[in-house]
Amino acid sequence: MRPRNSGTRPRRIRAVRLGPRSRxxxxxxxAVGVVAFGWPFLAPPSSxxxxxxxxxxxxxxxxxxxxxxVVAATISESGLGPKAxxxxxxxxxxxxxxxxxGAGTAGVEPMFFLMVLSGRVLGxxxxxxxxxxxxxxxxxxxxxxxxWLPFQMLAMGWFTMGAGLLPGPExxxxxxxxxxxxxxxxxxxxxxGTVMNLAGWPFMGALASGIAFDPHAAVPANLARFxxxxxxxSLGWDLGRALVTVVLTAVLGPAVLRALRRATRxxxxxxxxxxxxxxx
Length: 280
Description:
280 residues; mainly alpha; 9 helices; globular; disordered N terminus
């Protein structure tokens, strides 16, 4: 029997450790993502970006290649072992399978609560990789591959990574942790919807002139238009997503957290896999 060491806190296990190059790559893709999402507010009214608004989604679709490169670099530098790869595959497949449940009707998207809990247990590095790959796998499963996919991968990577950055990963347990994760899921679900609105809002054209992006308007005017667009088109969906995430986190969160933590302890991610030479 192992001696019980009651004087030390349990050490958090990270399946993906972020090294300097991986951190730099994440900062780079984050900066590119901010520009890709926020260019309507970053470009001056006198710029000619508005004249090429219909081409912009395809240009920004090149972000997919950059995201894949970042994920590959993160996995390579962190020395992701076979056990972590297996867990990554299982969680990504589970999240992809959960996405069609409800088909997003009224914001019924149960995959978000799994991303929150997985990021919490396995850390921000694993969270970013998991969120991006889950969205990619779910797009292949549902036929949702298109110029919007890189934006979804980036937004879901941020969403899952944020759960891994929440405070108290070693100290908070029980009801307090569930409340923290539920609150994060509620806020982040709205943030995900708002960010994804930025991916499509500038390309509405004349469909809704009162809330569409105006390339010649000042930033405050476009912010007001964007807020009206969110209220008119996605508030109900975002609220449904947030409430479903909160309910599933409160009901299933304790059991799923225990299962994830038990799996990481048994997998011993940070223990290298070795093969003994056969005895002569």
